[in-house]
Design brief:
With 292 residues, this protein is an alpha+beta fold. The chain has helices at 20-36, 51-61, 73-83, 100-105, 111-120, 144-153, 160-173, 229-238, and strands at 6-11, 40-45, 66-71, 89-94, 123-131, 134-136, 139-143, 177-181, 184-188, 190-194, 216-221, 247-252, 254-258, 263-267, 270-274, 278-291. The chain has a six-stranded antiparallel β-sheet. The structure holds adenosine-5'-triphosphate.
Protein backbone atom coordinates (compact mmCIF):
# COMPACT_ATOMS: atom_id res chain seq x y z
CA UNK A 1 0.00 0.00 0.00
CA UNK A 2 1.36 3.41 -0.95
CA UNK A 3 1.74 6.20 1.57
CA UNK A 4 -0.24 9.41 0.99
CA UNK A 5 2.92 11.04 -0.38
CA UNK A 6 3.26 8.65 -3.31
CA UNK A 7 3.20 10.33 -6.70
CA UNK A 8 3.15 8.78 -10.18
CA UNK A 9 4.14 10.35 -13.49
CA UNK A 10 2.59 8.76 -16.58
CA UNK A 11 4.47 9.59 -19.77
CA UNK A 12 3.23 8.94 -23.29
CA UNK A 13 6.48 8.32 -25.21
CA UNK A 14 4.74 9.19 -28.50
CA UNK A 15 3.11 12.47 -27.42
CA UNK A 16 3.52 15.75 -29.20
CA UNK A 17 6.65 16.89 -30.90
CA UNK A 18 9.13 16.62 -27.99
CA UNK A 19 12.03 14.19 -28.49
CA UNK A 20 12.79 11.07 -26.45
CA UNK A 21 15.75 12.94 -24.90
CA UNK A 22 13.51 15.82 -23.79
CA UNK A 23 11.08 13.34 -22.22
CA UNK A 24 13.98 11.59 -20.42
CA UNK A 25 15.10 14.97 -19.02
CA UNK A 26 11.56 15.64 -17.86
CA UNK A 27 11.34 12.21 -16.20
CA UNK A 28 14.67 12.75 -14.38
CA UNK A 29 13.64 16.25 -13.25
CA UNK A 30 10.33 14.89 -11.96
CA UNK A 31 12.07 12.13 -9.94
CA UNK A 32 14.65 14.58 -8.51
CA UNK A 33 12.16 17.31 -7.58
CA UNK A 34 9.62 14.85 -6.14
CA UNK A 35 12.22 13.14 -3.94
CA UNK A 36 13.49 16.53 -2.73
CA UNK A 37 9.92 17.34 -1.61
CA UNK A 38 9.66 14.06 0.34
CA UNK A 39 7.44 12.18 -2.12
CA UNK A 40 7.91 8.54 -3.11
CA UNK A 41 7.87 9.00 -6.92
CA UNK A 42 7.25 6.43 -9.63
CA UNK A 43 7.32 6.75 -13.42
CA UNK A 44 5.39 4.68 -15.97
CA UNK A 45 5.55 4.89 -19.77
CA UNK A 46 2.39 4.12 -21.72
CA UNK A 47 2.72 1.10 -24.01
CA UNK A 48 -0.59 1.30 -25.87
CA UNK A 49 -3.75 3.38 -26.26
CA UNK A 50 -5.80 3.23 -23.05
CA UNK A 51 -2.78 2.30 -20.92
CA UNK A 52 -2.75 5.65 -19.09
CA UNK A 53 -6.25 4.87 -17.72
CA UNK A 54 -5.06 1.48 -16.43
CA UNK A 55 -1.94 2.98 -14.82
CA UNK A 56 -3.90 5.81 -13.18
CA UNK A 57 -6.60 3.40 -11.92
CA UNK A 58 -3.89 1.32 -10.29
CA UNK A 59 -2.42 4.45 -8.65
CA UNK A 60 -5.88 5.31 -7.22
CA UNK A 61 -6.18 1.77 -5.78
CA UNK A 62 -2.72 2.08 -4.26
CA UNK A 63 -3.64 5.37 -2.59
CA UNK A 64 -1.37 7.75 -4.53
CA UNK A 65 -2.08 11.38 -3.73
CA UNK A 66 -0.99 12.79 -7.13
CA UNK A 67 -0.77 11.45 -10.67
CA UNK A 68 0.96 13.55 -13.33
CA UNK A 69 -0.06 13.07 -16.96
CA UNK A 70 2.85 14.00 -19.23
CA UNK A 71 1.45 14.07 -22.73
CA UNK A 72 -1.10 15.61 -25.05
CA UNK A 73 -4.81 16.08 -24.47
CA UNK A 74 -5.41 12.38 -25.25
CA UNK A 75 -3.06 11.20 -22.49
CA UNK A 76 -4.47 13.78 -20.07
CA UNK A 77 -7.99 12.58 -20.88
CA UNK A 78 -7.07 8.90 -20.40
CA UNK A 79 -5.35 9.61 -17.07
CA UNK A 80 -8.13 11.88 -15.78
CA UNK A 81 -10.77 9.23 -16.63
CA UNK A 82 -9.41 6.98 -13.88
CA UNK A 83 -9.01 9.81 -11.34
CA UNK A 84 -12.63 10.98 -11.53
CA UNK A 85 -14.51 10.71 -8.24
CA UNK A 86 -11.31 9.75 -6.41
CA UNK A 87 -9.09 11.51 -3.84
CA UNK A 88 -6.11 11.32 -6.22
CA UNK A 89 -5.37 14.65 -7.91
CA UNK A 90 -4.30 15.16 -11.53
CA UNK A 91 -1.15 17.09 -12.42
CA UNK A 92 -1.08 18.27 -16.03
CA UNK A 93 2.24 18.43 -17.88
CA UNK A 94 1.27 19.47 -21.41
CA UNK A 95 3.49 18.38 -24.29
CA UNK A 96 0.80 17.92 -26.95
CA UNK A 97 -0.38 19.79 -30.03
CA UNK A 98 -3.22 21.77 -28.48
CA UNK A 99 -3.02 21.57 -24.68
CA UNK A 100 -6.56 22.91 -24.29
CA UNK A 101 -7.17 21.93 -20.67
CA UNK A 102 -3.75 23.18 -19.54
CA UNK A 103 -4.28 26.51 -21.30
CA UNK A 104 -7.78 26.95 -19.87
CA UNK A 105 -6.56 26.25 -16.34
CA UNK A 106 -3.44 28.42 -16.65
CA UNK A 107 -1.05 25.48 -16.20
CA UNK A 108 2.44 26.50 -17.42
CA UNK A 109 3.12 25.39 -20.99
CA UNK A 110 6.78 24.95 -20.12
CA UNK A 111 6.85 21.24 -19.11
CA UNK A 112 9.51 21.70 -16.39
CA UNK A 113 7.42 24.48 -14.80
CA UNK A 114 4.31 22.33 -15.14
CA UNK A 115 6.05 19.51 -13.23
CA UNK A 116 6.81 22.02 -10.44
CA UNK A 117 3.19 23.17 -10.44
CA UNK A 118 1.93 19.58 -10.23
CA UNK A 119 4.23 18.82 -7.28
CA UNK A 120 3.68 22.08 -5.37
CA UNK A 121 0.08 22.86 -6.42
CA UNK A 122 -3.07 22.47 -4.36
CA UNK A 123 -5.95 20.20 -5.46
CA UNK A 124 -8.83 22.21 -6.94
CA UNK A 125 -12.21 20.64 -7.81
CA UNK A 126 -13.40 20.88 -11.44
CA UNK A 127 -16.26 19.36 -13.45
CA UNK A 128 -15.93 16.65 -16.05
CA UNK A 129 -18.47 15.56 -18.67
CA UNK A 130 -19.48 12.56 -20.74
CA UNK A 131 -20.58 11.98 -24.30
CA UNK A 132 -22.20 8.53 -24.17
CA UNK A 133 -19.66 6.44 -22.24
CA UNK A 134 -16.70 8.69 -23.16
CA UNK A 135 -15.53 11.10 -20.45
CA UNK A 136 -14.17 14.47 -21.49
CA UNK A 137 -12.66 17.37 -19.59
CA UNK A 138 -12.11 20.06 -22.22
CA UNK A 139 -14.52 19.87 -25.19
CA UNK A 140 -16.49 17.30 -27.18
CA UNK A 141 -18.40 17.96 -30.33
CA UNK A 142 -19.55 17.16 -33.82
CA UNK A 143 -19.62 18.70 -37.25
CA UNK A 144 -16.48 20.38 -38.56
CA UNK A 145 -14.40 19.90 -35.42
CA UNK A 146 -15.11 16.15 -35.41
CA UNK A 147 -14.31 16.02 -39.13
CA UNK A 148 -10.92 17.62 -38.42
CA UNK A 149 -10.24 15.33 -35.42
CA UNK A 150 -10.82 12.28 -37.65
CA UNK A 151 -8.60 13.67 -40.43
CA UNK A 152 -5.85 14.71 -37.96
CA UNK A 153 -5.75 11.17 -36.51
CA UNK A 154 -4.69 9.92 -39.97
CA UNK A 155 -1.60 12.16 -40.05
CA UNK A 156 1.81 10.65 -39.37
CA UNK A 157 3.22 13.89 -37.93
CA UNK A 158 1.62 15.66 -34.91
CA UNK A 159 1.94 19.33 -33.95
CA UNK A 160 0.23 22.64 -34.72
CA UNK A 161 1.41 23.06 -38.36
CA UNK A 162 -0.01 19.62 -39.28
CA UNK A 163 -3.23 20.47 -37.44
CA UNK A 164 -3.63 23.77 -39.33
CA UNK A 165 -2.92 22.11 -42.69
CA UNK A 166 -5.43 19.33 -41.92
CA UNK A 167 -8.13 21.82 -40.85
CA UNK A 168 -7.58 23.95 -43.96
CA UNK A 169 -7.93 20.93 -46.29
CA UNK A 170 -10.93 19.58 -44.36
CA UNK A 171 -12.71 22.94 -44.62
CA UNK A 172 -13.07 22.77 -48.41
CA UNK A 173 -14.41 19.19 -48.40
CA UNK A 174 -16.80 19.71 -45.47
CA UNK A 175 -20.61 19.93 -45.68
CA UNK A 176 -22.67 21.09 -42.64
CA UNK A 177 -24.15 18.24 -40.58
CA UNK A 178 -27.90 17.62 -40.09
CA UNK A 179 -29.24 16.13 -36.87
CA UNK A 180 -31.78 16.54 -34.09
CA UNK A 181 -30.59 18.44 -31.02
CA UNK A 182 -32.95 17.80 -28.10
CA UNK A 183 -35.62 16.94 -30.68
CA UNK A 184 -35.11 20.10 -32.74
CA UNK A 185 -33.92 19.82 -36.34
CA UNK A 186 -30.54 21.48 -36.95
CA UNK A 187 -28.09 21.96 -39.77
CA UNK A 188 -24.89 23.30 -38.26
CA UNK A 189 -21.30 23.88 -39.24
CA UNK A 190 -20.30 22.65 -35.79
CA UNK A 191 -21.71 21.87 -32.36
CA UNK A 192 -19.44 22.01 -29.32
CA UNK A 193 -20.04 20.97 -25.73
CA UNK A 194 -17.50 22.93 -23.75
CA UNK A 195 -16.44 22.18 -20.20
CA UNK A 196 -13.29 24.26 -20.71
CA UNK A 197 -13.47 27.29 -22.98
CA UNK A 198 -11.09 26.27 -25.74
CA UNK A 199 -10.16 23.40 -28.07
CA UNK A 200 -6.46 24.07 -27.56
CA UNK A 201 -3.95 26.50 -29.09
CA UNK A 202 -6.10 29.32 -27.69
CA UNK A 203 -8.97 28.59 -30.07
CA UNK A 204 -11.79 29.74 -27.77
CA UNK A 205 -15.19 28.36 -28.79
CA UNK A 206 -16.78 29.13 -25.40
CA UNK A 207 -15.00 32.23 -24.09
CA UNK A 208 -17.13 32.42 -20.94
CA UNK A 209 -17.01 28.72 -19.97
CA UNK A 210 -16.45 28.10 -16.27
CA UNK A 211 -14.96 24.66 -15.61
CA UNK A 212 -16.35 24.43 -12.08
CA UNK A 213 -19.92 25.75 -12.44
CA UNK A 214 -21.64 22.38 -12.92
CA UNK A 215 -22.64 23.31 -16.47
CA UNK A 216 -21.53 22.87 -20.09
CA UNK A 217 -21.61 25.58 -22.74
CA UNK A 218 -23.43 24.30 -25.83
CA UNK A 219 -22.02 26.29 -28.75
CA UNK A 220 -23.55 26.18 -32.21
CA UNK A 221 -21.93 27.60 -35.34
CA UNK A 222 -24.46 27.86 -38.12
CA UNK A 223 -23.42 27.58 -41.77
CA UNK A 224 -21.67 30.73 -43.00
CA UNK A 225 -20.54 32.11 -46.38
CA UNK A 226 -16.90 31.50 -47.35
CA UNK A 227 -16.12 35.22 -47.00
CA UNK A 228 -16.93 35.06 -43.26
CA UNK A 229 -14.23 32.43 -42.63
CA UNK A 230 -11.45 34.95 -41.94
CA UNK A 231 -13.37 36.99 -39.37
CA UNK A 232 -14.71 33.85 -37.66
CA UNK A 233 -11.21 32.40 -37.38
CA UNK A 234 -9.94 35.73 -36.04
CA UNK A 235 -12.76 35.82 -33.48
CA UNK A 236 -12.05 32.21 -32.44
CA UNK A 237 -8.45 33.07 -31.53
CA UNK A 238 -9.36 36.56 -30.27
CA UNK A 239 -11.79 35.09 -27.70
CA UNK A 240 -14.73 36.99 -29.25
CA UNK A 241 -16.47 34.22 -31.23
CA UNK A 242 -19.50 34.71 -28.95
CA UNK A 243 -19.99 38.13 -30.57
CA UNK A 244 -20.41 36.60 -34.04
CA UNK A 245 -23.89 36.42 -35.58
CA UNK A 246 -23.09 32.80 -36.60
CA UNK A 247 -22.43 31.68 -32.98
CA UNK A 248 -25.12 30.72 -30.49
CA UNK A 249 -24.45 29.55 -26.95
CA UNK A 250 -26.50 28.06 -24.14
CA UNK A 251 -25.54 26.88 -20.71
CA UNK A 252 -26.79 23.29 -20.23
CA UNK A 253 -26.40 20.20 -18.02
CA UNK A 254 -27.40 17.61 -20.64
CA UNK A 255 -28.24 17.27 -24.33
CA UNK A 256 -29.23 14.57 -26.81
CA UNK A 257 -28.10 14.51 -30.43
CA UNK A 258 -29.63 12.12 -32.94
CA UNK A 259 -28.35 11.81 -36.51
CA UNK A 260 -29.72 9.57 -39.24
CA UNK A 261 -26.56 7.59 -39.91
CA UNK A 262 -23.33 6.99 -37.99
CA UNK A 263 -22.19 10.15 -36.20
CA UNK A 264 -18.58 11.35 -36.17
CA UNK A 265 -17.71 13.04 -32.88
CA UNK A 266 -14.64 13.86 -30.85
CA UNK A 267 -14.02 13.85 -27.12
CA UNK A 268 -11.03 16.01 -26.13
CA UNK A 269 -9.83 15.76 -29.73
CA UNK A 270 -9.97 11.94 -29.89
CA UNK A 271 -12.01 10.90 -32.95
CA UNK A 272 -14.94 8.55 -32.29
CA UNK A 273 -17.76 7.14 -34.44
CA UNK A 274 -21.21 6.49 -32.96
CA UNK A 275 -22.74 3.81 -35.25
CA UNK A 276 -26.35 4.47 -34.19
CA UNK A 277 -25.99 8.25 -34.58
CA UNK A 278 -27.05 8.97 -30.98
CA UNK A 279 -25.01 11.05 -28.53
CA UNK A 280 -26.06 11.77 -24.97
CA UNK A 281 -24.04 14.51 -23.34
CA UNK A 282 -24.03 15.28 -19.62
CA UNK A 283 -22.03 17.25 -17.08
CA UNK A 284 -20.57 15.47 -14.04
CA UNK A 285 -20.20 18.30 -11.52
CA UNK A 286 -17.21 18.51 -9.17
CA UNK A 287 -15.77 15.17 -10.24
CA UNK A 288 -12.02 15.76 -10.62
CA UNK A 289 -9.21 17.20 -8.48
CA UNK A 290 -6.62 19.11 -10.48
CA UNK A 291 -3.33 20.41 -9.08
CA UNK A 292 -3.11 24.17 -9.65
N1 LIG B 1 2.72 3.59 -26.49
C1 LIG B 1 1.66 3.98 -27.19
N2 LIG B 1 1.46 3.51 -28.44
C2 LIG B 1 0.43 3.93 -29.19
N3 LIG B 1 -0.49 4.83 -28.77
C3 LIG B 1 -0.33 5.32 -27.54
C4 LIG B 1 0.73 4.94 -26.69
N4 LIG B 1 0.62 5.61 -25.52
C5 LIG B 1 -0.49 6.38 -25.64
N5 LIG B 1 -1.06 6.21 -26.83
C6 LIG B 1 -2.25 6.89 -27.39
O1 LIG B 1 -1.83 8.09 -28.03
C7 LIG B 1 -2.94 9.00 -28.01
C8 LIG B 1 -2.47 10.41 -28.30
O2 LIG B 1 -1.61 10.83 -27.30
P1 LIG B 1 -1.48 12.34 -26.81
O3 LIG B 1 -2.76 13.03 -26.87
O4 LIG B 1 -0.76 12.31 -25.53
O5 LIG B 1 -0.45 12.93 -27.84
P2 LIG B 1 -0.66 13.81 -29.11
O6 LIG B 1 -1.70 13.17 -29.96
O7 LIG B 1 0.68 14.01 -29.71
O8 LIG B 1 -1.13 15.17 -28.49
P3 LIG B 1 -2.37 16.02 -28.96
O9 LIG B 1 -3.59 15.20 -28.62
O10 LIG B 1 -2.28 17.26 -28.16
O11 LIG B 1 -2.17 16.21 -30.42
C9 LIG B 1 -3.53 8.79 -26.63
O12 LIG B 1 -4.89 9.08 -26.62
C10 LIG B 1 -3.25 7.31 -26.35
O13 LIG B 1 -4.41 6.53 -26.53
Amino acid sequence: MATLSSVLAIINPLSGTTTAEQKALLRDAFLRKAKALGYAPEVAMTAHAGHATELAADAVLRGFSRVLAIGGDGTINETAQALRRSATALGIVPIGSGNGLARHLGVPLNPMKAVERALHGRPVVIDSAEINEHPFFCTAGLGFEAHVAHAFAQQAVRGLPTYMRTAFRAFWAYKPTRFLLDGQEKELFSLTFANAGQFGNNAWMAPKANIADGRLEQCEIRPFPAQATGILTWRLFNKTIDQSAYWRGRSITKAIVQAEGPLLIHADGEPLTLPDGKAEVRIVPGSLLVLL
